[in-house]
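Standup, Tuesday
Yesterday: got the pipeline producing structure tokens again.
Today: sanity-check two examples.
Blockers: none.

Example 1:
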Amino acid sequence: MKRQRAEAAGRKGELAAELYLRAKGWSVLARRRKTAVGEIDLVARRAGVIAFVEVKWRKRTEDLGFAIDEYRLRRVAAAAEAVAHEYAQNGEDLRIDVILLAPGRLPQHIVNAWQP
């Protein structure tokens, strides 16, 4: 039951992140893009940039600082590398972003969160 609640909260977080990105002028190209090496929560495009976005939702703002780490970012980067050719056109820049969400606060968008 706990896993189901976490899954539902994650989906709500991804929807909130998608709405946030759209409000900022991004086009969302894919949701929950699965690859052989992992999943990408959102793939978005704006002004010559393709962002592979990891979304993290926490019940408490204090927990957001622990929501993302190098291991998780490395997995998103590997998944992005596996499918980047499907989204990048005409030399668009590619990057890994993170959106952190918690109740009662605006989304925190971390641009280019992964730089190997």
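Example 2:
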Amino acid sequence: MRPPIGNFSEAHPAPEVLDRLAEPVAAAVRAWRQVVPAAELLYVDSDPEVADTAVFCETYGEELLEQSANCVITAGKRGGELSYAACVVLSTTRVDVNGVVRKQLGARKASFAPMDTAVGETGMEYGGITPIGLPRDWPVLVDARVADAPHLVIGSGLRRGKLIVPGKALAGLPGAVVIEGLGA
């Protein structure tokens, strides 16, 4: 099957290639019960050496810069309590951690989670973290422009391979909150 975006040789419905996804992502796809059918989540193979957004877009299509979303793990602190959230923004924007995220989490301080923490808590590889398959108790903050996108490239949980998903699938994830201005 030809993917709807990007210069990939082929795409496969994610439920047909669960072995190519990080285990938490595969488990989420197996249990998928959203408005967007799981078969509309498409897996495309990609070189793990070019997983970072800029190089990825040079390799698989410059237009993907406008059609990719990054999932960033943040940590909020209030008192002695630490909470995590995933933030999903277009790759051309940056997460407003100190403003929007801090307020959304009700935290006194918010920051990007350290790489070891993000990897350890998600069970995914750095450079492939995706909002699909995150811990159920984490909020998933989704920029409104992500939710409105027809198709976006996101991680698969591994550096090798990506998912192409409708934005509304991300807006429908458990714990998702769509926010205007999350990405600046």
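Quick observation on example 2: The first strand starts at residue 12 and ends at 13. The helical segments are 23-30, 53-60, 97-105, 115-122, 144-148, 167-171.
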